[in-house]
Amino acid sequence: MGVHEMVIRTATPEEYAAVGELTVDVYVGEGYVPPSSSYVTELADTERRAAAAQILVAVHDDRVVGSLTVARYGLPYAEIARPGELEFRMLAVDKRARGLGAGTALVRTVIETATAESCEAVALTTMPAMVDARRIYDRLGFVAVPERDWTTPAGELLTVLRLPLPLR
């Protein structure tokens, strides 16, 4: 199975369009974000995100099958990170590639990065509707921090999850 390995790495500029398309496909196509939302522009604009944050991709058989955005505290795209936390956002996995472990591998890479950077935790915001993603987070040990939940301008309640990392 070695040929079909899942590779996780930082996206190259040539992949930005594919990442934007995939992210919009998942968020809009699966009903998490209405097509009319201003957030769609942000999801599509990988180039702008890449200038201020780290875009990770999961590549399988030379195809981008997943992506997420790593946002460091105090920098653009960090919405909920507190000092000492590494945040990630916009996890998207191609429907046709689900079950290959792309989502888990992407999140594990964020955890490894946070550990290497001596962060105390990884944090993220998720929507109650994102059941598949929530399964990954639960399995990896993320816990809800209800006091940090927040509401979008459209009035949707979002859930904050956090994974405390062992102190080194």
Write the SSE topology.
Layout: E1 6-10, H1 16-29, H2 39-44, H3 46-52, E2 54-60, E3 63-72, E4 85-93, H4 102-116, E5 121-126, H5 131-139, E6 143-144, E7 150-151, E8 157-164
Parallel strand pairs: 4-5
Antiparallel strand pairs: 1-2, 2-3, 3-4, 5-8, 6-8, 7-8
Structure explained in plain terms:
This protein is of the alpha+beta class and 168 residues long. It has 5 helices and 8 strands. Strands 1, 2, 3, 4, 5, 6, 7 and 8 form an 8-stranded mixed sheet that branches. The model has no long low-confidence stretch (mean pLDDT 94).
| CATH homologous superfamily annotation | Gcn5-related N-acetyltransferase (GNAT)
What is the fold-level CATH name, i.e. the topology?
A: Aminopeptidase
CATH class, named Alpha Beta
Strand percentage? 25-35%
CATH architecture: 3-Layer(aba) Sandwich
Proportion of helical residues: 25-40%
Approximate shape? globular
User: If you compute it from the alpha carbons, what radius of gyration comes out, rounded to the nearest whole angstrom?
Assistant: 15 Å
Category by helix and strand content:
alpha+beta
The number of strands is 8
Give the helices and strands as they follow along the chain: EHHHEEEHEHEEE
What gap, in angstroms, lies between the N and C termini?
35 Å
Question: What's the total helix number?
Answer: 5
Number of domains: 1
Which residue ranges are poorly predicted, with pLDDT under 50 across at least 5 consecutive positions? Answer: none
Task: Give the overall pLDDT as a whole number.
Answer: 94
The major sheet is characterized as: 8 strands, mixed
